[in-house]
């Protein structure tokens, strides 16, 4: 069985669908098993915040100013390290932020 990973990322609401489309095209969101489910994820909404530093080129907001943005947190399954890496690469290309916030967690099979 391939190692499973969870990819979690935060994205402004206007770019949620573009980012989901990109990671799913890279193989994320496919649940292994008889049902052949694809494009599986969980999306929750919240408020993100950041303050761009002097060297930043922010997509939203101004350098030095605290910015608060309605964002989505998206969690999805990646089966295999290659899929996780391709999904992160696709996310970085599709995401509007200079530095997207994301995390990849290795899952254990019990």
Automatic annotation (TrEMBL):
What Gene3D superfamilies does this protein map onto? 3.30.70.120
Signal peptide: which range, if any? 1-18
Q: Which keywords does UniProt give here?
A: Signal
The name under which this protein is listed is: ATP phosphoribosyltransferase
